[in-house]
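Sequence in, structure out. Go.
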Amino acid sequence: MLVKKPANKSSIENIKLHVEDPAAIEKFSWNLIERLHSYGVTNNTHVILLCIGTDRSTGDCLGPLIGTKLSSIDQKFFNIYGTLENPVHASNLDEIIEYICDNYPGAFIIAVDACLGRLENVGCVNIGDGSLQPGAGVNKKLPAVGHIHITGIVNVAGFMEYLVLQNTRLNIVMRMANLVVDGLKFAALNYQKAKIQGS
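Output:
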């Protein structure tokens, strides 16, 4: 595991939000803001957004798509690793983790990845405490990473997972990416404002 959980582990409830929920962006952002507060993240904390996935698979491109969209915005809150141009995936995850450990000691890691799940949960974005286990849905053994995680359920689990990811509709992935990016933008803006006002 890349990081140990801080002693003041979040007691914020894990949430699951569907892209059809008109209040999803607001719920996402305020849940993330409360979670960052509970972990003691400050303006001096390096916040790493580790967007895991590959552009070689429609379903698995959620992470790098989020990284790409957020990288095009003028923001300084998140240090982003994992884009469509420079994805973080099974072949280089260990190397990226080592780089982050060496260059951002004490950083707070938010791990982002696509996953498979039940049919009724497809299109849902989850935010929760604890590390993310990349590749678990397709039986890959990769290092767990993150203080907290954001996952998007892009398709149905249980049968021929590689093929399912390859045949996931881009539309659902785009909608989930937009939800997460808008939620992250809102959270970053309001978290920084709250910290400035409270200082």
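Check: The domain at 15-193 is CATH 3.40.50.1450 (Rossmann fold). The CA atoms of residues 46 and 107 lie 5 Å apart.
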